[in-house]
Amino acid sequence: MSGASGTPYAAAVLRALLAAGESVDLVVSRASRLTLLDETGLAFRDAHWRDDLREWLSRGADGKPGTFEVDITGVRHWSAGDLAAGPSSGSYPTKGMLIVPASTACVAGVALGLSKDLLQRAASVTLKERRTLVVAVRETPLNGQTLRHLVALDDAGASVVPASPGFYAGATHIQDLVDFVAGRVLDAAGVEHDLYRRWKGELGGGTPVR
Fold first, then answer.
1. Considering its fold, how many domains does the chain have in total?
2. Left, alpha or beta for 157 (phi > 0: left; psi -120 to 50: alpha)?
3. 71: exposed, middle or buried (C-beta count within 10 Å: 0-12, 13-18, 19+)?
4. Residue 209 falls inside a structural domain
5. Which of 25, 45, 86, 109 is disulfide-compatible with 92, CB 3.0–4.6 A?
6. Are 194 and 167 contacting, i.e. CB atoms less than 8 angstroms apart?
């Protein structure tokens, strides 16, 4: 997680990864902790990360506690300042990496290979190892410099997934729009989910999955 607005997207992706039986190496940037506090009123503390994560993931996009039941035993947390962490090395086995949400500063850092923190370093490792990297950029409008950085990431093999919800899937609540974006991120990563109704080539066709 980087410091862009859109922490509900990250929560939806995390819940779906865990529901799919995936293990997760979680890195929460310093800026993202401030955004999480601003958007949810919740802190994320290294010493209490399990309690903080469990409380955060239990909430829906409307902030109501107890909306979801989540088992976080599959999560391993790494401090963003820990450049000796497992994900900083190409020999650490992963399927890939998802940056959700991705700020323009994070996009620039990864595109330029700055590796100023664990998040950027892990992304650089993911690219050099030719693993899946999905970048869910959350900013508007986008200036030319950011667009060039996104093109550079695409050229390097990353999937750029703007946090742009679709409305054809029959959304009736904010959570539905959040889940659509989370689902598209997971699609790019090849993770199965049932977060949104897929398009079937006919107006009004299909049954919503939620």
1. 1
2. left
3. exposed
4. no
5. 86
6. no
Residue type, 112: L
Residue 33: give the domain boundaries: 7-189
In tens digits, the chain (210 residues) has pLDDT values of: 999 999 999 999 999 999 999 999 999 999 999 999 999 999 999 999 999 999 999 999 999 999 999 999 999 999 999 999 999 999 999 999 999 999 999 999 999 999 999 999 999 999 999 999 999 999 999 999 999 999 999 999 999 999 999 998 889 999 999 999 999 999 999 999 999 999 888 766 554 444
Tokens linked to 47? 């010493």
CATH code, 93: 3.40.50.1950
